[in-house]
Every structure is written in C-alpha cells, then in structure tokens.
Amino acid sequence: MKPLVVIPARGGSKGVPRKNIKELGGKPLIYYTIEAAREVFEDKYIMVSTDDEEIKEVVERTGLKVPFLRPRELATDEAGTQEVLLHSIKFSEENGYYPDTLILLQPTSPFRTGEHIKEALYLYHNELDMVVSVKETKSNPYYVLFEENEEGYLRKSKEGDFTRRQDIPKVWEINGAIYIINMASLNTKVLTQLKRLKKYPMNDIASIDIDSELDFKFAKLIQKQLRIA
C-alpha cells in the first residue's frame, strides 16, 4: 500500500466558528486527528488541506508541515470533498509521490483513535472501492423514519413486517470518522457512486462527529469524563 492521509480543515464553519482549532480538553480539535494519524503513519504520508493561515500555523506547532494553502475556490460551502481530495492527490503526485490508497480523516471526530484506523485498514483490499466507518443508526427506516406521501400522510420509509424492534434488520449510518478509498475508484467515479463498500463499525462515543455547538458541548463532557487526551 502507498497511502496518502488527507485531513481537510477549512477555515470557515457556520455550525461552530473556527471549530477545527477550537480547544477541546486543552488542545485544538484537529490535534486529536493528527495524533491518531501519527499512531499509524509517518508524517510524510499525512497532509492537512486547509485554506486558512491560522489553521496552518496551529497544525505546524505539532511539527507536521502543511505544504500548501488550498485555493480559494476549494474553500467555499459549495466545494465538494472530492475536489479537495483530488487537489491533495495532484499536489502529492506533482512532488513525486503517487499514492494508491487515500485515507480521509475528518478533524471533527476527536474520539477516533489510531487503533480504529488500523482495524479499518485491516479490512481494506484492492478489490474494494472503500472501507467506511459506521455506527448502528437509531433512526431505523423500518421503525422510526417516515416519509410524506402525495396525499400528505406519513408512511414508513422502508416497509417490513416486524412486530418487535429487535427483529428489524440493522441499518448503518456513516459516522464521518474514517474513509479508506481505492485511488483507482476515486479517479473514475465520484464518492457517492462507489458501490463496493465495506463497513467498519464503531461505537457511539468513538463515532461522535462535531457539527454544532451542542455536539461540542457533548464532546467536552465525554472528554472530561473519560479523560481522553
């Protein structure tokens, strides 16, 4: 495997302003992801993609070099993850390193560890498009999710003849913590079109993804109680 780890850290954030470098447990949020990546990979394989000078400065205090600032057009709300990843890959190839496997680690998953990454990597092989981390969803479409029909009545999103909740099929929710992507697949398809996916299940705490102030407050509580640092 020739890995490239990409940690995307845009400066703008509406849900939690400056969240990627906001302090959680006495250190910037992004440090948790950098530390998890370093448990598995050497620094030369880890690339933080940011458009923001302050984020670059904060990251480089860890000793990890940020080799570029992302172009402005890749730092808007409209910019997609795929374009950000392809930009990082292009930069890597232009500097002589040609990865075959991309590991996407979002900085908003502070309780994902190096051990989680190792376990997900163990599931990956070249015949897959992607290994993706998930959690079992509580919003099961067989049980609690409904859609409104043309007449304005609610109908279950997925029909099934189940009388007990424990009998319904498990449904998995992508938690945003780990994506291990086949470069050959990424070069020919967009992420949402990838079909050969393998799940890597994680528990609710490890799956915490910070997208709002409430998420951040909850993460602070978990960090304090478990003394995760």
Task: Explain briefly what this protein structure is.
With 229 residues, this protein is α/β, with parallel strands linked by helices. It has helices at residues 29-38, 53-60, 81-94, 114-123, 183-186, 213-226, and strands spanning 3-8, 23-24, 27-28, 46-49, 101-104, 130-136, 146-148, 154-156, 172-182, 197-201.
By DSSP, the count of extended strands is: 10
Number of helices: 6
The CATH H-level superfamily is Spore Coat Polysaccharide Biosynthesis Protein SpsA, Chain A
Average per-residue pLDDT, rounded, comes to 91
CATH architecture: Alpha-Beta Complex
Q: H/E element string? A: EEEHEHHEHEEEEHEH
User: What is the CATH third-level topology name?
Assistant: Spore Coat Polysaccharide Biosynthesis Protein SpsA, Chain A
Strand percentage lies at: 15-25%
Relative helix content = 25-40%
State the secondary-structure class. Answer: alpha/beta
Number of structural units classed as domains: 1
Mind describing the biggest β-sheet? 6 strands, mixed
N-C termini distance: 30 Å
Rounded to an integer, what's the Rg over CA atoms? 19 Å
- What sort of overall outline do the alpha carbons produce when their principal axes are compared? globular
Low-confidence stretches: none
| Main CATH class | Alpha Beta
Lateral arrangement of strands in the main beta sheet: 4-1-5-9-6-10
EC number: 2.7.7.-
Pfam families: CTP_transf_3
Organism: Marivirga arenosa
Protein name: Acylneuraminate cytidylyltransferase family protein
Summarize the structure in words.
Pfam families: CTP_transf_3. One of its GO terms (molecular function) is N-acylneuraminate cytidylyltransferase activity. The chain is an alpha/beta fold and about 230 residues long. It contains six helices and ten strands, in the order βββαβααβαββββαβα. The chain has one domain: Spore Coat Polysaccharide Biosynthesis Protein SpsA, Chain A. About 25% of the residues lie in helices and about 20% in strands. Strands 4-1-5-9-6-10 form a six-stranded mixed beta sheet, with helices on both faces. A two-stranded antiparallel ribbon has the order 2-3.
